[in-house]
């Protein structure tokens, strides 16, 4: 009975070894078929090479190619984000420059209006001073301002 038990164990171990070896060759053959560079007829020859099979090498190469592809995609996304950031910065600078120009234009317009107002005010004051001098014969006329509109013609071109 013991000999029979030992014989059964040996047969079971041989059967497992054959199964594992067959599974190994089938897996290797499948990997070789998936390798697009090789025709199907070469796959059996490669599968029978022995323990130094290229299945691990191909798997490792495939994983490395996936990593490289992923790294390339990540690099492309980083470059795209950098381009977008540069574009946003450029647009922001353009907007700031446009706002600055608009403010400067508004200030120039305000200064021109203010200058014109001051000139009109001076003309009006001079006119009122002359009227007052004509009504008061005893007062001394102050000839500091001629009362012309020269300040409007010369000064209204403030830039």
TrEMBL record:
<keyword id="KW-0175">Coiled coil</keyword>
<protein>
    <submittedName>
        <fullName>Epithelial-stromal interaction protein 1</fullName>
    </submittedName>
</protein>
<dbReference type="InterPro" id="IPR026185">
    <property type="entry name" value="EPSTI1"/>
</dbReference>
<feature type="coiled-coil region">
    <location>
        <begin position="63"/>
        <end position="108"/>
    </location>
</feature>
């Amino acid at each position: 009975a013991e000999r029979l038990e030992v014989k059964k164990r040996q047969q079971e171990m041989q059967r497992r070894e054959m199964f594992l070896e067959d599974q190994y060759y089938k897996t290797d053959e499948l990997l070789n078929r998936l390798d697009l560079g090789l025709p199907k007829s070469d796959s059996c020859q490669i599968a029978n090479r022995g323990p130094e099979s290229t299945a691990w090498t191909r798997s490792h190469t495939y994983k490395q190619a996936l990593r490289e592809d992923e790294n390339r995609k990540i690099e492309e996304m980083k470059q795209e984000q950098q381009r977008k950031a540069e574009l946003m910065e450029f647009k922001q600078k353009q907007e700031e420059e446009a706002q600055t120009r608009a403010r400067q234009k508004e200030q120039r317009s305000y200064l021109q209006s203010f200058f014109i107002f001051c000139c009109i005010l001076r003309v009006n004051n001079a006119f009122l001073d002359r009227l007052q001098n004509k009504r008061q014969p005893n007062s001394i006329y102050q000839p500091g301002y001629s009362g012309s509109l020269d300040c409007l013609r010369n000064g209204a071109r403030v830039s």
